[in-house]
């Protein structure tokens, strides 16, 4: 994957997002057709989470381009709108994303959001690992605007306390809240957002243990990367093996892995550039099928390469067998459920994360010199 190709993907994201925008919000997805490849994509639904993701990504492009994508509005307008909507949301992930985005990209301390997140973590209820990672990222982004120390400390302790000896993180915290057959499973998103949050924490608060934790997780997922650059989907946190590789999501390849691993490098961790380049190359050279994943004409990158299977059968089978014993797989799953099916949809957050991953450079370095709220007065 060349620098020029990456520039083309960034341009695609800018060109593709306007068709996903609807009156101050973003749709849940745009869907294409496998049987009618030239048909225009069809927008469906509404997603607060995805609108927030896009707002964060758009904040790093020119205001003129923002207005072109948002029908005259700016990223700052979208950030304000989504932060207000998040005050009425019962989705902890959306609330954490909104608090993070408002602080980092808008310079706004969304006090009701931070207060709600702090109460939630203090209650001790189980939380999704991704949500907890976003709470950590929100706390770090807002530390110079208000007192986020308690939220940051609780999110940090939950993550580090749940990390296994393999370096990987479970899907929920605690892992037992994910159910007996899935307590050992962590997905790719659980690993990258935890790595990103802990890498940033290590810089913002000079926390060597956080950097060690981020390094261990990144090292493991890079060691498990597929031969064609695939970032696999489900891991066994007990021994750091793969539970089920598919689907392979395009956003993992072009945005989420780069976002976390570039932050780790900027924090002083290992440089995994070779793995990033290999992951990006998969978008153009994927052995699972011949059909392209990148569609310039539609302004999208199709969502994933999946198995041809009913009801996520391979994932369910693999989760059950590996629950009995790490590494236990039924032979012939690749033959029975071959990987080779494209999911012809694209979600706004995928393009928003693509912009953020490659345009937000220096965020970690800014944290290094950013005092916590009230630090100067106390010194």
Unreliable parts: none
* Structural class based on helices, strands and sheet pairing: mainly alpha
Number of separate helices: 17
Distance between termini?
A: 48 Å
The strand order across the widest sheet is: 4-3-15
| Average of per-residue pLDDT values | 95
How big a fraction of the residues is strand? 5-15%
Number of strands: 15
What is Rg? 20 Å
Principal-axis shape: globular
Proportion in helices = 40-55%
Major β-sheet annotation: 3 strands, antiparallel
Topology diagram in text:
Layout: H1 3-16, E1 21-22, E2 25-26, E3 29-31, E4 42-44, H2 48-58, H3 63-69, H4 75-86, H5 92-106, H6 111-122, E5 127-128, H7 129-141, H8 149-162, E6 172-173, E7 185-187, H9 188-204, H10 208-223, E8 234-236, E9 241-244, E10 248-249, H11 250-266, H12 273-281, E11 294-295, E12 300-301, E13 304-307, H13 313-324, H14 333-336, E14 339-343, E15 345-346, H15 348-359, H16 363-368, H17 375-378
Antiparallel strand pairs: 1-2, 3-4, 3-15, 5-6, 7-8, 8-9, 10-13, 11-12, 13-14
Helix pairs in contact: 1-15, 2-4, 2-5, 2-15, 4-5, 5-6, 5-7, 6-8, 7-8, 7-9, 9-10, 9-11, 11-12, 11-15
Describe it:
The protein is mostly helical. The chain has a domain at 163-288 and 304-343. Helices cover 51% and strands 11% of the residues. The chain has helices at 3-16, 48-58, 63-69, 75-86, 92-106, 111-122, 129-141, 149-162, 188-204, 208-223, 250-266, 273-281, 313-324, 333-336, 348-359, 363-368, 375-378, and strands spanning 21-22, 25-26, 29-31, 42-44, 127-128, 172-173, 185-187, 234-236, 241-244, 248-249, 294-295, 300-301, 304-307, 339-343, 345-346. The strands form six sheets. Strands 4-3-15 form a three-stranded antiparallel sheet. Helix 6 (111-122) packs across helix 8 and helix 9 packs antiparallel against helix 10. The radius of gyration is 20 Å and the shape is globular. The protein starts with a helix and ends with a helix. 52% of the residues are buried. The mean pLDDT is 95.
